[in-house]
Amino acid sequence: MTEHTDPEQIGVEPTGVERTAQTGTGAGYTGGANQPVTYPGAPHVPAIPPRTNTLAIVSLVTGFCCSLAAVITGHIALAQVKRTGEAGRNLAIAGLVLGYIGIGITTLILVLALTFAAAFSTLFGVLGGINGNNGSSSSIVAGQVGAAYLDDGYLLVGTGNTVVDLYIDPMCPYCGQFDAANGATLAALVDNGAITLRLHALTFLDQASAGSEYSSRASAALTCVAATNPDSTLDYLTALFGDQPIEGTTGLTDDELIALSVGADSISDCVTSGRYLAWSQQNTDNALNGPIPGSDLPSLQGTPTALVDGRQYLGAIDDPQAFADFVLGVTS
């Protein structure tokens, strides 16, 4: 007995039987018989580019104005780009390059500035004086030391009733001429008790000593003598003018200024320490700014200037008789 099997149960299509789902006779079928079924395609969506890393942009922008910030944000941006896949790697690299260039330029400028500052400081220190002395090495002193009346700004010699104020600069050539003509007269008037001489050694011709500040150093050395060996003050003044340098030269060194002193006590420490430099310079400022104490002069107009009891001598500086007559005329 033969058993009939239903073809549909074993997946065999019976002859002449049509299936709408497979033959395509149903709705939406576009092909012919026995062709595969096609469906409408999905619309084309363009690829979205990756987002640009924000810090990469910041790094590039700050590279033009803030180098350190550009370097910091640039490194952070590169790390983020690598981790997230964001765009901006080239921007971050550009920011880093600009940042490092800026840091290099800034460092170079600082090094050059410090180098030039040190060079100029050394140069001005050398020009400030010979043997390391300049006006800033001493402080303003006060009181009375020997013949140096520091509070009043002069060196005092003699005890006479008539007061002669003499304003001089050790480098002033006219002061040298005045001393050559009248130094002996002044010394004699001091010795016989006729006058009290007040010396004002000034420093305004420092500018004419090729950077050595000779006027300041010589005036300070004269003050050292007045403070240490008062009786030798006028002798030292005569020695200064006897070995007076020409304007535009450096003048005597500190060692040579020390050697001019013939007093019992050495002025070496006083000179080399610059003890009276600032005091001498301050006296000069006071004289130039005025007024001149005990006179009608609003300020000092030049050197030599001689005042006898406040009256200015206006005669010839190289005429000892005229000057002596003026002093004696005021005295009498």
From TrEMBL:
Which Gene3D superfamilies does the annotation name?
Glutaredoxin
In terms of Pfam families, this protein maps to: DUF4190, Thioredoxin_4
This protein's UniProt keywords: Membrane, Transmembrane, Transmembrane helix
Q: What sequence ranges are listed for the domain Thioredoxin-like fold?
A: 162-318
Give the protein's recorded name.
DUF4190 domain-containing protein
Q: Matching SUPFAM superfamilies, A to Z?
A: Thioredoxin-like
> Where are the membrane-spanning stretches?
55-79, 91-124
Disordered: where is this region? Answer: 1-33
Domain DUF4190 positions: 55-108
